[in-house]
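WARN no homologs supplied; continuing
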Amino acid sequence: MDTTFEELPVMLMANSQKVVFIHSLNNFSGSPNVLSIVIKGFLRKGYTVELITSHGEGFLSDLEGISYRYTCYRWSANKIKTLFWLILSQVQLFFMILLSSKSNTTYFINTIVPFGAALACYLSNKRYIYHVHENMQQDKPVYRIFRWTYRKFNRKSIFVSQYLKTTALNCRNGIVIHNALDPDFIKTANKYLSIDGNVKSNILMVASLRKFKGVYEFAELARELPHYPFELVLNATDKEVKAFADEIKKPENLTIYSAQVNMHPFYKRAKMLLQLSHPESWVETFGLTILEAMVYGVPAIVPNVGGPTELVDDGLNGFLVDPHNQEDIISKIKLLMQDDNKYATFSSSALKKSTHFEEEKMIAEIENYLLTS
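OK structure emitted
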């Protein structure tokens, strides 16, 4: 396709620009997953890309075509150790960026955690932008630091949901750009869907092993509905999963898995997805697993506040619920499990909704915002 005259200046600017992406903890959670998609999108557009992140396995590992720099940050079960590594890594980040070039370079700060990067950019008058995924509303000292530095130093921000922009952080310096899925994820999903085999029957939940994520409520639902198979995928180690299974006296119809690199088999055999985060403790700001499940035509039952409400249309492709109302959740599970016609309508609507979140559109919107003054 020929390039128009109007497109040429943007393309030239892109090809001459460098973007330094900054993310504190590389793991298999949602924000590094989205960042990996953004990085690959910018590489395709001809940008020079550098990534500053932590060592360890995650969605940001072994990306081709970029240069890496690493901080010392690591997560530990010991909160004091985690805090120590966090502070040390932020000091490290501060000097890394303070001493770096600002010529034709934009610093892309993923989440509001890397406060050392924001401070360095602010003091050295570098071009930078925040990609905000989380609300960080918990009343903990470290979260207060994150919120204070963000509110003090943000100049331009991208928010992953309208809820996050207008409710959680109430920030005027930014726009909403919804997350999208990697095109490779959709291609793989289509391959899995083309394979004949398992009938959809499982009730799936994907979450961190945190009480406020609703993992105990999910286990109780499995106990209350013994005729349905439940699967729980936790962002946790095998040892942590075993301890949790022992603690809840795991019912036989519930299978619990540790962190998974490949979620496609789980979505293929899922009949519905549950997300039960406690809104008084943790409001979800988007819900990437909801979108991934929708690609498989899987309806979702999710909290009635936050980012998931921008994905799930109540009564059309899923249900919005109070995560503490077990009776209501059980009735909605039974409705979708027992009414094949209604389920087919919900499934079709979920698949259709997933097409609204296109990777190409997301990358174009981020690039346009990044290039504006």
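The longest strand covers residues 48-54.
OK
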